[in-house]
Amino acid sequence: MNNQVRTGQVLTLLLLCVSRVSQADPLWRDFSGAYVAGSGFTLDPDQQQTVSLEYASGYRWGDTFTYLDTTFFRGDERTYSLFGETAARWSLINPDEDRSNKAVTDVLVAGSLEFGSGTVETFTLGPSVDLNVRTFDYLHLGLMRRESLNRSGFNNSDGWQFVPTWSLTIPAGRSEWVIDGFAKWIFATDHSDYHPNFQFNPQIKYNIGKHLSGADRRVYLGVEYYYWSNKYGVKSSPAVDSDQHAVSFLAKYHF
Predict the structure, then answer these.
(1) What is the overall mean pLDDT for the chain?
(2) CATH superfamily membership of 3-254
(3) Model-level pTM?
(4) How far apart are the C-alpha atoms of 252 and 44, rounded to whole Å?
């Protein structure tokens, strides 16, 4: 059985599981929209604007996360591109167990589907842990196997990746600063034309919503930094600079 058939079967099972468990009422949910505009992007137009929609929810069995980015370009024959991901994590620990004082608060199996314009389709699967670290709202670590569903060009990114995600809130007078984001280290690849690469994408934002009258809202203004070495798995060289250092303005609202 080849890798593409095996991945297709795993993906079908993942979607069936999600369709069954998503019928349960969530313990919490969060929906947000963001506008990001900046420069310093490589292998794409230097200046970009992105509208991002995100939805996350938690259940007794685990959690889900989905986002969709629509990026608009200047000075390029493409006017925009789409990229998104939908993910679910299933807990392996009894949900009734008290884990508040443990260093590892959860052990999970995580699966996701990356999708986008053109031929970008990648399935990932692997273990994930939630850590209880002082001052952090959350700190998740995931070790994932990547399988490309469309094997062409730099989209053939089969291999292994390590993905931490984090968030911490720092009180500041009447409001607070939030520092959150993710890193993605694709450290082992199956194909010589797709090189290991590293993404680091933190956001630093201030909640101006608490200064608005009438409600305790979450309305953020801040900056986003997006570092990506060997972007798209393209080896950086004097001829092709594929190491990205992009800085953007960020506005985000949680509904």
Answers:
(1) 87
(2) Nucleoside-specific channel-forming protein, Tsx-like (2.40.230.20)
(3) 0.85
(4) 24
